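Tutorial handout. Part one gives the primary structure; part two gives the three-dimensional structure as tokens.
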Amino acid sequence: MAAPAPPAKKGRGALFWVGIGCGIVLLMATLIGGAIGFVVYRGVQTFKAPTEAIQGQLADVKAGNLDAAYQRLAPAYQTEVSKEAFQAFAARHAGFAQNAETSFPLRSIENDTATWRGLLKAASGDSEPATFKLVKAGAVWKISDIEVSGENPKNAAADTGSGQLSIEPMGVQKRRDGDTLRVTLRIQVTGFKVRPEGDRYAIDLAEDVETAGPDGTVIEGLSQPDVERFAGSTSLATGAFASFTTNLTMDPKSTPGTYTVKLTVRDLVGGGSATFSAPVQIP
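Part two.
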């Protein structure tokens, strides 16, 4: 008798092949997802550095650290924009100087240059259109051009005041103190010029006082040039103010009538002057 034939080999079941197919699909999905995730991550990292360079400069300006903000400019751009022009530019744009929020929906990078376009929102809520251009120097992005509301720092001439002084009276007080009458006059001065000094502006004002009696005669003991000096500094290129407090000691037994106290403030930077006269009644 012939030997019986060996049993036929059983093939893989349908579930096996389905499982293999699913595994391959999952593997491909994982690889593709990982590749996409890597591309997205690289894209985010690529756009992150220029954004941080811009936001870093805005934070420096807002904190009053203009030297640090200026150093974020590319060296070639610094040759075109002086520190004084950069500060004047900042003083004119609240979205740049007092930035509260940035929005840059239009961003592009080509090789080692980048362009960011969007809006700068000031702490007051006002927004200004802005464009920043950057250049990559090694691993660091430097700002190579700025434009806010159509103005560039290269065209921003430092505005250091109008030179047209104005005096606003803040009050005249009289107080009897024993055998004397103490008179205090307070004024506020605006419109003077300032002098750029680094990242600040110097103020230099002098006050003269002249007192005349009821007959118009100048009283030497109550008159003096340079009775007070205001020498200080401000971060404002324009719009700063200075306050003066002038104290006079008068004799309440002086000839009754109206005395005139004339205060003259001289701008030692811009050369202008302004005068304010206050009547003081005795008794």
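Part three, for discussion. Residues 42-155 form a domain with the Nuclear Transport Factor 2; Chain: A, fold (CATH 3.10.450.50). The chain has two domains: 42-155, 166-282.
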